[in-house]
Amino acid sequence: GDFSLEPAGTPSAAGLPLGDLPLAQALLLRFARERNLRLPVAASGMSPVDIALFWADQFRKAGRLAQPGSRFTPDRGFLPECAHEFLLLARHAHGAGGNARTDDGRDLVRILEASIALSAQIPAYALYHMGQLAELSFLQPENWRVRLECGLAFLKTCRVESGLAEIRAARVCADRAGQQKSFTRVLAARPSHEYIMRFLDISGAGDA
């Protein structure tokens, strides 16, 4: 019979805090097979972070983004019921050692990128979105695209001084990377870009 999303994802997630990784992997594998989904790695090789991110993506695609007023806390036995809660579970798994397969920060970057993409779809999560961007910007200080998005998020939440400083830093990073035109083009496509570009003293044509 059909192995639908919630009866698969929630029990699979339940296996993670309980330390039952084989259960979480088995339920994920069954769901993937019934949906003809291609997994990036074999289910048996998926870490707790991999599993939580997989379910977050599936719930996002199903439109189950977030639950208003949710007090989801993984270490208190709560079970995730939406994409945002699975991302919180991924962060918890990472902090609990679920990133043992990699120790170079890639799992945390994956979690932050997924959280940023999700929160961008939810207007009420603007502050959370800003916080996730700020953390990723700290981890990737030379990534001008991340720093630009972070600066714009600061501006959107009325943190004008911090936002303009971050955008200025993003431009410096783009200059160092030889991507001045790309920076100007991306910025010019954003609301209120005229004010920001005047502040940075750049033209819409991009740098030579």
Structural notes for this entry:
By secondary structure, the chain is an all-alpha fold. The chain has helices at 5-14, 21-35, 48-61, 83-98, 106-119, 126-139, 144-156, 160-176, 180-188, 193-200. α4 (83-98) packs antiparallel against α5 (106-119), α5 packs antiparallel against α6 and α7 packs antiparallel against α8 (160-176). The protein is elongated and about 55 Å long. It starts with a helix and ends in an 8-residue tail after the last helix.
Summarize the helices and strands and which ones pair or pack.
Blueprint: H1 5-14, H2 21-35, H3 48-61, H4 83-98, H5 106-119, H6 126-139, H7 144-156, H8 160-176, H9 180-188, H10 193-200
Mean pLDDT reading: 86
Amount of beta strand: under 5%
Identify the overall geometry: elongated
Pattern of helices and strands:
HHHHHHHHHH
Low-confidence stretches: none
Structural class: mainly alpha
Brief account:
This protein is an all-alpha fold and 208 residues long. The chain has 10 helices and no strands.
Task: Name the features.
62% helix, 10 helices, 0% strand, elongated, 208 residues, mainly alpha
